[in-house]
Specification:
The protein has 293 residues and is α+β, with helices and mostly antiparallel strands. It has helices at residues 55-70, 101-108, 113-134, 193-219, 229-237, 253-262, 273-278, 280-283; strands at 16-24, 28-35, 42-49, 79-84, 88-94, 136-137, 146-150, 163-167, 174-175. Strand 1 and strand 2 form a beta hairpin. The longest helix has 27 residues, at 193-219. The protein binds adenosine-5'-diphosphate (ADP) and magnesium ion (MG). Magnesium ion binds at residues 25, 144-145, 169. Keywords: ATP-binding, Kinase, Nucleotide-binding, Serine/threonine-protein kinase, Transferase. There is a cross-link at residue 142 (Glycyl lysine isopeptide (Lys-Gly) (interchain with G-Cter in SUMO2)). This is Calcium/calmodulin-dependent protein kinase.
């Protein structure tokens, strides 16, 4: 299958024929592509333009690939292959044909509680894997970085299963506690308290982001927003948000309690991933679903 005419030809990427552009970033472009050997094998190729980056940005790129290489989880976008040339760095990723969760939110204004629960539980499983198993903080959890495989059929209130949700984009991710170990901090018997506090502090940023995500899914708009960036920053620093009428009127108190547990100013007062997964709203099963676990 020859490469599509209007698609660029990148050096060293001959195995994949680019089909269409599906994403854009500051230094990167993401394409849907197929294997030249078998056109059924579709992937996403993230092309990163090294020639536009300074040294620090190039270092971050190396980190991103390094971290992506270590990850293997159903709710994390899988890295299939990576390579680079002088000018470019490539990541061949498992394709998520449903695209960004962002589009779902903007399409439906807000997701109902059971659909939001389904989505956030899957994101939380990825976060649990990152925090507890890998010792990694994602640091950029937001709708644009949450992709999915749609379940056949439509997405809507009566269908509380959106499909498989996957966390993407490890460009801002960080390894904590040095080399990840099976039990985080397990090999840190000699580490000072502030090192463990540092870990708690950093994983907390993902929990805050989960709170913002859940708020946005249920309410249809983000918790902190102002056209003036200064005003917005002040709202974030004070965790100044409201469950405003009318959007929030029908939302359950349990859901609001969970959001409040995540959007706490002090990271140590924020729920961690274990507490999040144990929260009554998360453990609740919707009426239409048979009880699980
Ligand atoms: P950036 O670091 O530039 O934000 P991302 O890795 O987040 O790059 O990719 C940018 C966008 O490309 C995503 O928001 C998404 O829309 C799309 N994208 C990335 N990876 C995939 C994938 N595996 N499947 C489908 N779309 C993807
Ligand atoms: Mg991104």
């Amino acid at each position: 299958q020859p490469a599509k005419k209007d698609m660029p030809n990148y050096p060293g990427l001959e195995r994949w024929s680019l089909i269409e552009k599906i994403g854009d970033g500051a230094f990167s472009t993401v394409y849907r592509a197929s294997d030249t050997k078998s056109e059924f094998n579709e992937v996403a190729v993230k092309v990163m333009r090294k020639y536009e980056m300074n040294d620090k940005q190039k270092q971050k790129l190396v980190k991103e690939v390094e971290i992506a290489r270590k990850l293997k989880h159903d709710n994390v976008v899988q890295l299939i292959d990576s390579s680079e040339t002088r000018q470019y760095s490539y990541m061949v990723l498992e394709l998520c044909p449903g695209g960004e969760l962002y589009h779902q939110i903007t399409q439906l204004t807000s997701l109902d509680e059971s659909l939001s629960r389904n989505v956030i539980k899957q994101v939380a499983k990825a976060v649990k894997y990152l925090h507890e198993t890998m010792g990694i903080v994602h640091r950029d959890i937001k709708p644009e970085n949450i992709l999915f495989y749609p379940k056949s059929g439509t997405v809507g209130p009566e269908e509380s299963n959106i499909g498989v949700v996957k966390l993407a984009d490890f460009g801002l991710s960080k390894m904590i506690c040095g080399v990840p170990t099976m039990t985080p901090c397990g090999t840190m018997g000699y580490a000072a308290p502030e090192l463990c506090r540092e870990q708690k502090y950093t994983t907390g940023v993902d929990m805050w982001a989960l709170g913002c995500l859940l708020y946005t899914m249920l309410g249809g708009f983000p918790p902190f927003y102002d056209e003036d960036f200064q005003v917005m920053a002040r709202k974030v620093l004070r965790a100044e948000y409201t469950f405003a009428s009318p959007n929030w009127d029908p939302i359950s108190p349990e859901a609001k309690d969970l959001i409040s547990g995540l959007l706490a100013v002090r990271p140590e007062e924020r729920l961690n991933i274990k507490e999040f997964l144990a929260h009554p709203w998360i453990r609740q099963t919707s009426e239409s679903q048979p009880p699980s676990e």
